[in-house]
Amino acid sequence: AKESIHKTYFPINFHTLDFLDARIVLNEDGESFTAEILNPEPNPIQPIHQLSGRYCFFDNYVASFIGMKQTG
């Protein structure tokens, strides 16, 4: 899920988040998560403080996905 955060955040703000720069909470429904950005880009192109995503299991794999509509 943290890789999904990076792949969503970086192309918008051109800032690499370190592993500890986001906190993930798995939601009780078992298929979604929320990510709080703890250390965002100081002067972001688009401020992002929270992201929501989905995840699923398939055999021995876990897939995660974040989709967001870019404004502007």
Q: How many distinct helices?
A: 1
- Tell me, briefly, the overall form: elongated
Largest sheet: 4 strands, antiparallel
The chain-level structural class is alpha+beta
Average pLDDT reading: 91
Order of helices and strands: HEEEE
User: How many DSSP-defined strands?
Assistant: 4
Q: β content, as a range?
A: 25-35%
The portion of residues assigned to helices is 10-25%
Distance between the termini: 26 Å
The Cα radius of gyration reads: 12 Å
- Reading side by side through the largest sheet, how are the strands ordered? 1-2-3-4
Note poorly predicted spans. Answer: none
Question: Can you give a write-up of this model?
Answer:
The protein is 17% helix and 35% strand. By secondary structure, the chain is an alpha+beta fold. Strand 3 and strand 4 (61-65) form a beta hairpin. The chain is elongated. The mean pLDDT is 91.
Summary tags:
4 strands, 4-stranded antiparallel β-sheet, 17% helix, 72 residues, alpha+beta, elongated, 1 helix
Brief sketch in words of this structure:
The protein is α+β, with helices and mostly antiparallel strands and 72 residues long. The chain contains one helix and four strands; from the N terminus they run αββββ. Strand 3 (50-58) and strand 4 (61-65) form a beta hairpin.
